[in-house]
Amino acid sequence: MARSAVGTVTRDDAEGLDAALTDVSEKMVIVKPAANAIRILKFLVEAGGPTRSVTISRSLELNASTCFNILRTLVLEDVVEFDPVAKTYSVGVGLTTLVGNLLTEGQRVAAAMPQMRDLADRFNITVTLWKRLGPDKIVLVKSVPSPANVRIEMAEGQRLPVLMAATGRIMAPHLGWTRKELKAAFKALRWQTPLTFEDYWDQVEAAEKCGWASDQGYFTRGVQTIAAPVFDRAGDVAFSIVGVMLLGQHEEGALDEIGVALRDAGRRLTAALT
């Protein structure tokens, strides 16, 4: 016989409770749409990249129409993302938001990989994710190389001054520094192509208006970078998502398209990474 805080439980009571629980479990009903939605999410996570609806339905042996309708619902709930050009689906940042604080930063960064890979494939560029580190540094935490045969690859873990390259132009207004402090920090930087602080600041202001910044070979000669911010909950720039390519690889119109795509990705990643 066992005692509890609410009284005494006999062996007969315990056996009756076990029988009741067994009876309940036997009568449980599997809701197929819910189960199939979970199967689809698991499949997309394991796939690790954008996947077409027909591939998902065949792999999971689901009716094509049922699979499509579930995917469309998941897209509306922001847990799956749809690429209207490639007609593919991938895990959305809303899924990361659902689990929130249960994720480590490494897992949050890993959740950004599908979007980074999609951008790299779409524009044939290397896509990197930089994190602000302390008051005056940024560190490269993730890099997805371009699928092109000739490409730029970057080693994760490298650090740069916070004002450097395209990322610096989106970080500058959010550092809490005076213009005099910004100018002093700028003068300490080494640019491969000379750049005045006045020109740099004009580019900072332009970046604030359009939501993304560009560095055309100033940081590294022959290399073009385009960066967009990922804000934290306080409204500060916590990360930047950056496209890295050869200078002249894309025409001006394509650069604008890349900038907008990075800006939109940065907005989506704000919920996932911070």
Strand-helix topology:
Elements: E1 2-4, E2 7-9, H1 11-26, H2 32-47, E3 51-52, H3 53-60, H4 64-76, E4 80-83, E5 88-91, H5 93-99, H6 105-111, H7 113-123, E6 126-133, E7 137-144, E8 159-161, H8 165-171, H9 179-187, H10 197-210, E9 213-216, E10 223-231, E11 237-246, H11 252-273
Antiparallel strand pairs: 1-2, 3-5, 4-5, 6-7, 6-11, 7-8, 9-10, 10-11
Helix pairs in contact: 2-4, 3-4, 5-11, 7-11
Explain this structure to me?
The protein is an alpha+beta fold and 274 residues long. It has 2 domains: 1-91, Winged helix-like DNA-binding domain superfamily/Winged helix DNA-binding domain (Arc Repressor Mutant, subunit A), CATH 1.10.10.10; 101-273, 2-Layer Sandwich (Beta-Lactamase), CATH 3.30.450. Helix content is 47%, strand content 21%. It is built from 11 helices and 11 strands. A hairpin with a 5-residue loop joins β10 (223-231) and β11. It is elongated and about 70 Å long. The relative contact order is 0.10. The model is unreliable at 1-7 (pLDDT under 50).
CATH topology heading of the largest domain: Beta-Lactamase
| Span between termini | 52 Å
Helix share bin: 40-55%
Q: State the secondary-structure class.
A: alpha+beta
Question: How would the global form be characterised?
Answer: elongated
In the CATH hierarchy, what is the superfamily of the largest domain? Answer: GAF domain
CA-based gyration radius: 25 Å
Q: Which whole number gives the mean pLDDT?
A: 85
The number of domains is 2
Number of strands: 11
List the strand order in the largest sheet: 8-7-6-11-10-9
